[in-house]
Amino acid sequence: MKEQLEQLLAEAIGQLKAQGTIPAEHSVNIQLDRPRDKSHGDFATNLALMLAKPAKSNPRQLAEAIVAAIPENSLLSKMDIAGPGFINFTISQDQLKGQLTAMLNSDSLNVDVAEESKTIVIDYSSPNLAKEMHVGHLRSAIIGDAVSRVCEFLGHKVIRQNHVGDWGTQFGMLLAYMEALDNQSAEYELSNLETFYKAAKQRFDESEEFADRARQLVVKLQSGDEYCLKLWNQFIDVSLSHCQDVYDRLGVKLTRDDVMAESAYNDKLPGVIEHLREKGLLTEDQGAQCVFLEEYKGKEGEPLPIIVQKKGGGYLYATTDLAAIEYRQKQLGGDHLMYFVDARQSLHFDQIFTLARKAGFVEGDIQLDHYGFGTVMGKDGKPYKSRDGGVTKLADLLDEAERRALELLQQKTTDLSEEQQKRVAEVVGISSVKYADLSKNRTSDYIFDWNHMLTFEGNTAPYLLYAYTRVNSIFDRLGDTAFDRDADIILDDERELALANQLVRFNEVLHQVQDKAMPHFLCGFLFDLAGRFSSFYEACPILNQEDEALRNSRLKLSMLTANVLKQGLELLGIPTLEKM
Asked: Which residues form the DALR anticodon binding domain (predicted)?
């Protein structure tokens, strides 16, 4: 409906331009907002105020002209001018009812899918395989996953890329430690990667001989030495298994098939350097191969280097990222490349995207976007740590979430069996961790707070999961009793109307999530939907409503609410529960 209204306004502006009321050459950006006070209608615009100056007109008079120029239509039941020139629009009930019916009759809730499907390549999670995944890997994995789910739902082909770090100096250190233990005929256990890494790092720091061997093994590994590759493959296989366990617990749609690691581009890196040289973009600086772009300068005005090859011949993240960008467009056919990497990498990606275009690693009108995100913080205002002050392993965090959720459930009266309680605790605990993150603005830091995320009050996963079970319980109580699913929808009560207006926003919100890569828009929508249903449920009798037409209508509104809550949570990667 928002798109239809925008089209009506565009036609009105076009008419006013033709009449000379608005300068023909003036570009117009039509913006519609949803008023907080519903007495002001369903949509509002300050278009008249924005256009008054170029039109050399009084804003209120221009607002009247815009309203008069809007074509005759069945979308709107009312248009009002408020204050100095705000225009308020009220959608007709017939349009609203038609949209609700279409949503109920559609498996995809009548969401507008892309007329032309794009191939969207999404880079997310991408942990370093030297150690187990920790809390710092949480945001990329779940934000990227939610956005990828929404893009797929809206009709695009999504290719997930898990650009894991599996190459470089630290792997030489790990291989040297594995070799030393082999030579000592010592048994070692790779199942605890964190412990293994710390032991290797200690040897690296304490023994110059060990450190030299580690550096030698890096060179041998990168040159394809069979022995080094055997040890490396053993370590990588265990690391990826750890990652997959975490992804499965989180409900993240990444698999081993989505892994395209740094090492996968190793053979392409000499070609990247040669291509940059042929393009005349390389400059040698203190033995290193660099690219200097005029667009990026330091505080003193000096060009900032993009180092693509170290003095000793080694390659860097920039080199691998250039190879990955080329692969993602030219081999995978990506129309839009999305990167979910923390905000501290913003300059890096700005430089890489600019260089990729300039050097021809990508061509045409491909869209390249880095979607940065903030840090998970502790209550002390510092990056979140474990109780002992170390980095919290993600698997341990999820264990703690499930434990706390089970304690919470056991404090409540429930008829769930012990096994059912365990399953509910698993869903509630992990969903709480995910939702607490997804409900925050992607670009902001947020404070990790167990007490807040596991409460049944406010904008939390437990609240929404319970809201779904509450709606679902209506149909449990209804049982096999039939109701007329073709009955008319009645919106006489203000709570019915408020719920209906929220439901039809689902399509609009999903497109906002895709356009801005902001899952918190969907979280806010679902929270508001649950709140409006609660008000409707308390004020409008459903199963004991004697008027059959009203009863059928309210059952349809309840059913659609359940469908939207379930689909919305699924797009966030959160499973619903039938009982809690």
From this structure: 464-580
With contact defined as beta carbons under 8 Å apart, do 534 and 477 qualify? no
What does each C-alpha distance from 280 to 274, 324, 349 come to in angstroms? Answer: 10, 21, 21
Decide which of 262 and 314 is more confident: 262
Q: What DSSP string runs through 401-419? A: HHHHHHHHHHTS-----HH
Nearest CA to 48 among 11, 9, 19?
A: 9
> Are the C-beta atoms of residues 383 and 376 closer than 8 Å to each other?
yes
H, E, C per residue of 540-555: CCCCCCCCHHHHHHHH
Please tell me the pTM assigned to this model.
0.92
Contact at 8 Å (CB) between 545 and 551? yes
Q: What is the pLDDT of residues 431-450, one digit of tens each?
A: 999 999 999 999 999 999 99
Q: How far is CA 445 from CA 307, 339, 382, 437, in A?
A: 30, 18, 10, 10
Picking from 523, 506, 531, the residue whose alpha carbon sits closest to that of residue 146 is: 523
Pairing of strands 119-123, 336-339: parallel
Whether residue 438 contacts residue 146, with contact meaning beta carbons closer than 8 Å, is answered with yes
